[in-house]
Amino acid sequence: MGKLYWITTVIISSFLLLSSYTYFFSKETIEGIKSLGFPNFFRIQLAIFKLFAAILLIAPNISNTLKEWSYAGVMFFFITALIAHIAHKDSTFITVLLLILIVVHMTSYYYYHKTL
Prior knowledge:
The chain is mainly alpha-helical. Helices cover 84% and strands 0% of the residues.
């Protein structure tokens, strides 16, 4: 697979792993998710899904169906996070970061399909 695919996929997977970790262990993140109005079980569910998605996106020889679901789930997460942070009137930095991650994610997805 191409370099751009691996660079973008490693960036997204690394973000998902770090995010999953903070969803479990960072008091600031846990409080931030509460302040967005999401219940605690949803935080745990998202952390687990992010962990699975990170592994599925980065692992070679995974079925195309699982990769597609992972890409879709991550995009749904990014869009939901973007809407939640905008509605909560969080900093512009978070909005810009999420928009950059969406572009990186779309680039990974595009190059994933170019390598099939």
